[in-house]
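User: Once you have settled down, look closely at the record that follows, taking as long as you need, and be ready to discuss the fold:
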Amino acid sequence: MREGSEPEVFLYGAPSSLYTAKVRAFLRAHRIPHEERFPSHPRYRGAVREAAESHRIPVVEFPDHTVVQDSTLILDELERRYRPAADLALGPRQQLVSHLLECVGDRGLTKPAMHFRWNFMAENEAFIVGEFGRALRFPGPAEEIERLGRRVAAKMSGYLPMLGIEARTVPAIEAAYAETLARLDVLFSEHPYVLGGAPTRGDFALMGPMYGHLGRDPYPLRLMQTAAPLVFRWIERVNGGEGTGPEFPDAAAAPLPGDRVPDALQDFLRHVFATYRDELLASAERLAGWVAEHADAAAGTLLSPAGVDQPALGPIVVDYHGVKVQQQAMGHSLWVLQRALDFTASLDDEARRSCEALADEVGVGALLRLKLARRLTRIGGRLAVA
């Protein structure tokens, strides 16, 4: 926060939270005066959580008491209020890429993020347990912090099976992540940010998994620093609001001109969506099944009768870099994808054709041609049909 300035945003989150990392990166990069608070803060427990209608973090509160939950909607509101120049300068292809990167940040890198956090507990345990515990009780007795941290850790690590993370799939997850690091390292050898000389929404989306888990937990942090030091420097650059940094003194502090998308970024998207595309398509089929079973569902009907905010739609089997993976289809991922579909549909014919050509080049043409069986929306912090 700028010295002497009053907070304009109160961010309720945690250092170990993937989606908090996305919001924090935006606030820091744009030097927005803010104050970060744990969910143990009395204001959160007393008013903010109820207003958000969700127990999930991050949540932001503005001085006018507007409360927003979900990192994607939070960035929407921050953009509306602060209108960052870099995002306003993006061309249609660059905007499409930003939407695709938000899909990647939402779930596309969840497998390596969760694997490298929870399957390397000899290196990560003390750090992670402490992080979770302090978010819920700090300051406080060490034994109480540890107890709370272990309780949260047990719950979070229990999500591995629904993500398809098991001994049989681990080699493919690790090999795919090695490719992810290699391709991003090439990108950041050429540009300070994903689309040129200024951070944009795609950078903030990637910061979720790449910093919140993979660039901060002890084991994957060491792996990143060793295998992809330029990816680590990108994280430092975004979090530190460094601009183009000393590595790129001649780079213009703006997105690349001419609606250009770097070749290395296209290579990265091609790699990630080689499998994440099929996961999203299979999830769309699951949604179609739900819609068929609930043909009379009125607008506003929750996808989960139990009111789960990010419901699983049922099991799917996808090819993950040569390995068959059984996992759950996640409805929230389709809601994020829907935003990319809506953006493409809003374009004029020339811009749409240009974006569709780019989509075909990076292997997501089938996604942009997808028609969801029912539009999705969020009501009271939960996923519903529109």
